[in-house]
Each structure stands twice: as structure tokens, then as C-alpha cells.
Amino acid sequence: MRIRGSSNWRMPLAVQVIVLLCVPAGALADPADRSFSPTNIFAPVSTPAHSILGLSLFVLAVTAAIFVAVFTLLAYCVRKFRKRDNDDIREPPQVYGSNQIELAWTVIPILIVFVLFLATARVIHAIQDAPKPATAVEVTAIGHQFWWEFRYPALGIVTANELHIPVSDPVRPTPTFLKLLSADTDHSFWVPRLAGKTDLIPNRVNEMWIDPQLTGIYLGQCAQYCGTQHAKMLLRVSVDSREDFEAWVRAQRQSANQDEKENAGRHVFETTACVNCHAVAGTNATGRFGPDLTHLMSRRTIASGAAENTPEKLRLWIQNPDAIKPGSLMPAMKLSDPDLDALVRYLETLR
Amino acid sequence: MSSDVMAIQTREVGGRPWVERLHEWVTTVDHKRLGILYILYALLFLLIGGIEAIIIRVQLMRPHSDFVSPQVFNRMFTMHGTTMIFFVVMPVMFGFANYLVPLMIGARDMAFPRLNAFSFWLTALGGILLYFSFLGGSGLYGAGNAPDVGWWAYAPLTSRAFSPGHSTDYWTIALVVSGFGSIGTAINIIATILSMRCPGMKLSRMPLLAWLTLVMSGLVLISLTPLSAAQIMLLVDRYLGGHFFDTQAGGSAALWMHFFWIFGHPEVYILVIPAFAFASEIIPVFSRKPIFGYPVMVAATICIGFIGMSVWAHHMFTVGMDSNANTFFVLTTMAIAVPTGIKIFNWLGTMWGGKIQFKTPMLFCIGFLFQFLIAGLTGIMLGSAPFNWQLSGSYFVVAHFHYVIVGGILFALFAAFYYWYPKITGRMLNERLGKLHFWLFLIGFHLTFDVMHIPGILGMPRRIYTYEPGRGWDTMNFLVTIGAFVQGIATLVFVANLIISYFKGARAGNDPWDAWTLEWSVSSPPPVYNFASIPTVASRRPLWDLKHPEDPDSRYE
Q: Does domain B21-555 have CATH number 2.40.110.10?
């Protein structure tokens, strides 16, 4: 079975009509309005998110219809059967029940539930049981308190927090299949425009896939409370064209850039506790507790999205992480100013 | 039926020392007094939990706010959830059950009065333990050591490695202790209902409140034990070298989730079924008709109880269960919508053809019906697993369950307060303040919880102490906070009404609402022995039969 690039669930015409009547949902489903919210679940660019949108519009249509029916009955009761001021004091007819009515409003809900269940089961299997094609890019995502480690085992790449994947052409799909692991507590990978969320559970391997059909940057964040800085465990997914992705891969596979001018800073890095947690490929630094810094300057943000990747913010992060992300596991390095300046200049060369 | 209505004053003439009166209350085994103690305890924690909510909402009013630190915020949402569920809604429901069930079934007290008192004091101790955490450990400096692991306390965040100190232990032990209190009360309720009904009151003639309290108590017995077991396992992990949930040593995080949610889902039915009970007593009286479909209401509730035990993993759709498991839990979750919907239709059927009086209890019941309908529909959305993969862990879920608990349960609870306060205190609550409370709370509720669905749809996760601007969440969060303040003001109006009316409210008499169940046959407040002589009943509405001897229910049942 091949992965179909576009929505793999066709809606019957009648349902499409009902769906179009759901204006509130529709107002949020405008994919062109990316500027309003980059994390809108109703603006999918990838098949799992598309499938979910289709199913959710159907569910919304059904529940909206139920709401209209029941609310109308409630409003009618409240209007029609109120005690009038000129009413006599006699009690209304004391009706105890009706078997036929009970049967009707048991059978009809059962039928509705059955339809909803079938529609849902179909999408569950389509998403969860999709086979992995040979052209898939494989990424292993490892959740940490409070950052994301991304490894591409087949490509020999280790990076952090910002994921680069190739765009997937519906005609010849190149989806990305992710294995989800955790180094510590529960996390959850949620980039709404690409797919529903899947948790990263320690001592367990979870899998998910995405096949974004539009290049661009897609945002998300951890969606399972994992400790103090859960709120700042942000995700940034860069969906690149085939050429850009291959260029990125080539750059990431290089060892660290060696710039003789910044040997002082490199010396600071390699002789203080930095190397306990961080790795820079091609040097003595092989720590794995914190993010890999080999190509730190290829990222837009630091601290898993908590700050822009500028020299000032980088300096602040090393000097006093609590000013940016209080409760993160990055220690304040307590370096002297000359050492800190040299270190930052060195890190700025790690492109 | 022959209960002499001789109003014997229970207020003291020529007052005794306050120490003696306090001692009487502390050592009471009278179900009415214990009921009042439960309710007052819950009201206190409602205010405290509400303050925690306000702190959360002020922090989230703007992105990148620093009103509180992340550590304090995480403690706030943990304590808010734990407090509201275990020390507000559960005690208040046990309180109303305690007060009303013996009166409604024609008994003088619960089956085990001393167990009743013991259970209350266990629950009270649990709440005190939980809040002592603010002082314990590091103490007030640094806002103490209150738990910050969320009210579900997922493993392995709760292991010693990730939660050093004792904050998690306060959460664990407080809930184990109050859990035993809940089990004691559940046993008491079941024994009372099964063996102490007055002559003529077959199970099929019991008020629906008694039936629903029976089902709720059964759920308490079955579902609290997995939670207590898991909490004991957690203590073993933390202190005795166990590794049940210790993933670093081969333990399972998902195991905690299964144990917790096998408790956690029936728990929400434990919370809501008493709300159904209130609606089932109040809507008929203010529609002037019997409840539509009594046997179906009983059957539907029992169905909800059973099916509710099989849906728990819909809280775990994103955990990575395989497609067959997810599909199963979708089926059971959708199935439970059927008996729940049937109940809504039956309440509407009760109102249909009636002569509705829009007194405050009925206003709150109509709000309950409207909001519980919407909450159920967003529940169906969340029950569709792929849709859940987007919506779970987001503010959509937070909006959904607050819609159920505040829009549904709390509204029904307010209705119950306005309905039974006259019976408990002998005075009516002020009707104008009641309507002010209703409308203010309705506006604040909808401003907060209608709007709150939107950030969820736009990708905002829950349990975050701050958020990024530019994701479309800012204005929504601001509006949500405004609504929270409006609800706070409305709640203060309610508390003021409770206090003022206690001293100045109009005298209620036995039966201010012209109702039909046995509690309205005795004085307000009832004498300590409830009934001068135990009544005999011939139908579901004994007082209707008395008031309408030409057309008694007993002729039709």
C-alpha cells in the first residue's frame, strides 16, 4: 500500500454540504491565513493532519446538528411551557413517560454513534498502520527535560531542537518517519499543522509519520507536562525543498568548523564542564546530556526556542540561564568576562 | 403516611458556651451535621481553589508574563486540580448525600453513624495534609513544597530522580487518606440504601437521588482502590526500592497511566452523577410534573456506571497504543454518549408540557442542561481518537472538562444549594441575590470557557506557565481571564447570600417549593431524629399522594 499524498478519505456530497454550513469551524480552517496562527490544527499541510481535519469536520457537523436539535427543544420548552401569570393553580397533566419515545431516542443515538465510530476507526487505521516506504527519511526524536534531540541514523546526523525534513511530493512521496524516545520523563511531539501529537514515553518506542507538502517553517511545542520548563520546550520544523534538505544534510555531516582565531574560546569550552554535557564533532567534547553544538549557528533559536540565537542571548544563556529559562538543567557557568567573551566568539564559529 | 409535623426547635434557647457547641459539632455522628460539615469544608476549599485559578489566569493573561515563577505556577495548577476534585466536589457531593439520603428514604440516620464521622474526618485530614505541603519542607520561603506534578502525577516525573523532596509525598498520602474516607462513606451509603428504606419504599419507589447516589457509591468502591494501590506502589518506588514506575530501571510509565485513569474516568462519573441526581429532583418540582421515564433514568445511570469503567484509555490516545486498542476505546467512549443523551432527553421530557417556574434552582438547572449538552458534544469530539491526537493536552480539553465540571456540575450544585438550603437552615436564600448570582456567573462562565476552546484549536498546550506571542492565543487568554474574575465576583455574591440569609432570610416552613419527597414532610431544619414516626409510602411521590388524594401516583405505578 502506497501512502496517498492528499486526504485519503473522501467525503460524500451530502456531508460536504453539511460541513460547508459549519461556518465557525470553516472560519478557522483557512490555510492561507497562516499569519493568524502558525499552529492552527485546521490548517494542515501534511497527510495525517489533513485526515484529521476531514474527520473532525464530519464530527463537528454531526455534533452541531445534535446541538441544534436539542437546543431547539430546550428553548421551546422554556418559552412554551412557562407558568403564566394568569395561570390557574392546577397542576399540568402528570405524564410518567412513554416507551415509544424512549425507544426512538435510544435507537437514533445508537445509529449516530455507530456512524461516528466507523468514520473514526477508518482514520485511525489509515494513520497508525500506514507502512513505511523505502523513500522515507528516518528520524529518531529523543525527548529531554527541556529540549529535543534529533538523530538521523541513516545519515549520521545528530542535532537538537530544530528539525529539518524534505518536502514530500504527493506523486512521489518522501515522508519522514519518526521514532519517539525519551531520556527522562514523558513528553509529546506536537506540530499541529503536520500531525496529531504522539507522546515520548521513557522505556517505550513510539512511532509517527509526517509528509508535509508545502515548504516552510512549522511551529509546535511539547504537549505533555514534563517538569518546570515544559512551557519552553518549543519545536521548529523546517520543511525544505529537496535541494535545500540535501545541502543541509551535507553541512550537518561535517565535523565542527575549525577557526584558529578562536582557539582561546575553544580552550575554555574544552577545559571546563561544558564538555560534560555537550558534544562538538571532531573535538574532545563528547557529552550527550545536553544538545549537540557542532552546528549551533545553523539554528535560529537556542534553549529549545526560548531565545533567539544572537551573541547577546547566547552570552546571557551561558552566564545566567535562569534569566531565560528558570528551572532548565543548564547550569550557570560562572565564567570570568574574558573567558565568557572568548567562549561566545568560539561558539559563533560553529556554523 | 403518618409523620407528625411537630416542629421541635434545634436552636438553643438561652445559649450554651461556644466550647460545648463546638464539641458537639466535632463529635457529632448525626448525618445532617456531618453533611453540613462536608459542605462547609468544600465551600472553604472552593474559595481556595478559586484563588489558585485566579493566580493561573492572571499569569496567562499576557504572553511572557512574570506574575509568578514557573515553579509557583506549576504548583498552582497541580493544587487547583487536586483541590477542586478531591476536596471540593467529592466532599460536597458526599455532604448532600449524607444530609438527604436518610431523609429521602424515611430513615433516622445512616447505617453506620460512627463510620460516617470517621470518614468525614479522614477526608478533612487529607485536605489539611495536602495544604500543609506549602509549609512543610522548604517552608514559606520559596513558596514551600507543594506538589507540582499535575493532579494526575504521571510517572516518572514523580520518581525521586525528578521530584526530590516531599512535595509528591504530600500529594500521595493526602489522597490515600481521603480515599479511605470516601470508601467509608460509599459503604455507608450502600448499606443505608439497601437496608434502611422505610416500609413501602421498594427500590423502584426510591427517589432518583437515592438511586444515583447508590450507583455513585458503587463506582467509588470499585474505582478508588486502583488509585490507592498505585499510590502505595509509588511510595514503594520512592522509599522502598521499588521500580514499578521507574523507567530508568525497567519500570513502566504507561502502567501508572492505566492505574490512574481506571480510577480517573469513573471518578468523573462519581462527580457528575450526583449532579444528575440534583437535576432529577429539582426539574420535576419546578416543572410541576414527575420525572419523565423514571425506570429508564435508573437503567441509563447503571449503564453509565458500567460503560464508564471501560473507557479509561481515551485519556491515553496519544500514548502510542496500537490501532486496535485505540479503536476499542473509541467505541466504548462513543457508546457512553447514548445513556447520557437519554438522560438529557428525559429531563427535557419532564419540562415538556409542564408549568415551569423560573426560580433560582430552576435557572441553574436550565443552565446545567444547556452546558452539559455542549460538554457532552465536545466529549464526543475528544472521543474520536484522531481528532483527540490534535486536541488532547491542549486548552480544548481544559475547556471541555471545565464545561462539564463548572458548567454542568457546579451549576447543578448551585441549584441544589438554593433548593435545599431552606430545608437545612429553615430560611430561604434571597431570590434577587440568587438571580444576580446566576446571571453574573453565566456571563463569566461563557466568557471564560467558550473562548477557551479556541486557543486549543490554535495549538496551545495545557500546563504551560507562559506562551509565545504571535500564535493567535493572546487575546483569547485575556478574555478568558476577565471571565474568571466575573465568576469570582458571582461566587462572592453567592457566599454573601448564604451568610446574610442565614440570619435574615424569610422563614421557609416545611415545604417552601410544594415538593413531593419525604424530606419536605418534616420541619426546616428537621428534628435531630428526622421523623417522629417512620413513614409508610405507597408511591414514588408520597407527598403528591397526600396533597392529591383524588389522583395519587400509587394508582398509576
A: no
